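Hey,
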Amino acid sequence: MPTWVLVADNSRARIFTAHKTAGPLHELRTLTSPETRLHEGDLVADRAGQDRNQGVAGHGLNGERPHKHDIADRFAAQVCEELKTALNQEQFRKLYVVAAPAFLGMLRHHQSPALRQLIIAEIDKGLTTQDPAAIRKALPDFL
């Protein structure tokens, strides 16, 4: 069974495989979340309310998280579900996770205990736009 490498950020997740411990990476699939590339204003239909009291600077009344964060969190859940399905089908035996720091936290939140057990290392770098050779250099010599 091969080793898998997940390289992800809030809008793209690329899954690579390495059949040999010191071998090159081969891309298996790519998952995308185009919504996270939109501007926050394009994701909401209405502006938050404003409180304009006399003598007090105006401030927003909406204390919710930005919609982009919620969309990225759903994407992290989707990525983890994809990995869980592959794990149940015994498609890999080890997993390396390379992710942008904020997205890495979201992935951790959605990982099942069984998936966590197969994670050998986590690298907090945003490398989704890099070619497989550059991604391989960020990983240990022997996977």
